[in-house]
Amino acid sequence: MRCFCVFVLPDGVIGNTWAFGAHIPGSSPGRVGLEISVDGFFSRQEQMSERVAIILAAGVSSRMNTQMPKVLHEVCGRPMLAYVLDACRQVDVKKMYVVVGYGAGQVKEQFSEAEDIIWVTQTDQKGTAHAVMCCQEHLGDFDGETLVLCGDGPLIRSKTLETLFSMHKKSRPAATLATAVLDEPAGYGRIIRDMYGNIQGIVEEGDCTAQQRAIKEVNPSYYLFNNKILFESVKEVKPDNVKNEYYLTDVLSIMLTVGMKVVAVTAVLPEEALSINSREQLSKTSKIMQRRIQKKLMDNGVTIVDPDNTWIDVRAQIGQDTQIEPFTYIHGEVKIGRGCRIGPFAYLRSGTVLENDIVLGVFTEIKNSTLGRSARVRHHSYIGDARIGEKVNIGAGSITANFDGEKVNQMTIGNNCYIGSGAILIAPLELKDDCSVKPGAVVSQENVDNFGKQGEVNVP
Questions:
Q1: Catalytic residue numbers, as ranges
Q2: 339: alpha, beta or left, given left = phi > 0 and alpha = psi -120 to 50?
Q3: Which of 40, 49, 52, 299 is deepest in the core (most CB within 10 A)?
Q4: Is CATH 2.40.10.220 the classification given to domain 279-450?
Q5: Is 314 helix (H, G, I), strand (E, B) or coil?
Q6: Half-sphere CA count of 66, side-chain side, radius 13 A
Q7: pLDDT, tens digit, for every residue of 236-289?
Q8: Do 432 and 414 form a contact (C-beta atoms < 8 A)?
Q9: pLDDT single digits (tens) 399-434
Q10: Which residues pair with 74 in a beta bridge?
Q11: CATH architecture of 2-266
């Protein structure tokens, strides 16, 4: 069966299109005579299980004043695109078609190990619908559900995506979108509804009338489509708008014009709607993400004495009953065990592993090192590229000199060692169990035999 223009949906709802057409700027449904095959559409949709996503990551952000692809800018230690990819994986999206353009090589390199990403190139950035068109080769024949998201929205939650999928399954529409209600909606496309609350479409802000700009329900670009209908409809989009671009929002107007059902669920939190188009927004987003990270840690039994003056990377893992003192900065893939006390003014860098019951004093820095159970590193100390045993005491002001000007060298300190204050340990170096180094000593592999067990006389 083929159909034109309007059909009655199973629940008796007929698509209403009063808000679309030439009289609404930015609403370009294209040919009214669009043909869409609906053979068995709803029965097939009920059986669909495979999910894919198109992620838009090709744009250039002039407001960020950067030579780096926008989606590679970090939020709490990870590229913003990584958060979007993870949210998709958490709702069982099997493949992600990431549309890249500016800096495509850099983006691909950053995520080169991901086996569930298919890269799609958008050579000319002609709008969001054009980005979807670029996926025709890969998805034109796919019979399933296609999620379309922007790669610059790292505050996305998998819970919101689950709500989107749930509503789509329940309502059986051609498309479902998740919306947000914002006190300050500037910059977003506005959601147009009729008197019954049915969505009539989206108008981009640049094309809004004064009355439409007052609407607070906005489109944060969370879309879920029946894939076949998406690619039938996107062919009809025309760049009839102020920016002369192909808007993905016009796909929805096309669907409504021919009587297809489109559903909008208000499921996006105001903070989730924040996309990043400036350094200021990047900073604001990072602060929101930092609050999420710290809340999760505190819910899991970690004490953070002063959250506003603590920064913790999203990749960090921290055990129960550990206490993080103010002005601590934890960056990268860091693992901290149970019952530790960190800081204040501590700096932990990627590759650091602290086992249980570790104490780090004021102004300590640990880089790519492992500290065994019950080790103590006192204030103003630096430990880099070292493997330190259990119950080791490192006195105040002691450092590992791990770089010789050409390469980084490794160091091993055995169990139950005592390192006096102000000691300099020159790598490569291995100190045996129970070794004692007197305060102020300079230790290298050449003179390490001069340093015996605790209680013995040490040669400086």
A1: 379
A2: left
A3: 52
A4: no
A5: coil
A6: 19
A7: 999 987 788 999 989 999 999 999 999 999 999 999 999 899 999 999 999 999
A8: yes
A9: 999 999 999 999 999 999 999 999 999 999 999 999
A10: 79
A11: Alpha-Beta Complex (3.90)
